[in-house]
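Student: Please help interpret what follows.
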Amino acid sequence: MEYLNAFLCGGILCLIGQLLIDKTKLTPARILVCYVTAGVILSGLGVYQYLVDWGGCGATVPLTGFGHLLAKGVRKAVGESGLLGALTGGVTAAAGGITAAIFFGFLVALVCKPKPKG
């Protein structure tokens, strides 16, 4: 059942993104920013954790999950460090994922040969 919930949750989030691309004039970059912002807002309101509990990785892997991670990191850091935590908590919480993205992106760039478009 856990896999089905993750599939449904992630699929619904992707479906919403696809509908926004197809039916609105929003650019993909703006939609991505909206997803991260929605994750932060829903997490700040305490709603996104229910989605994570139900959908598991289907809720944490998409960009809304990244926003949720940032909000959780800020909340924790503010509790520990005060107002300074609002500036450092999000980056600290997401540091592992950001580092992995940079490392694996670099690794793929070394292995693959770029080709000119056209």
Remarks:
- Residues 4 and 19 are 22 Å apart (CA to CA).
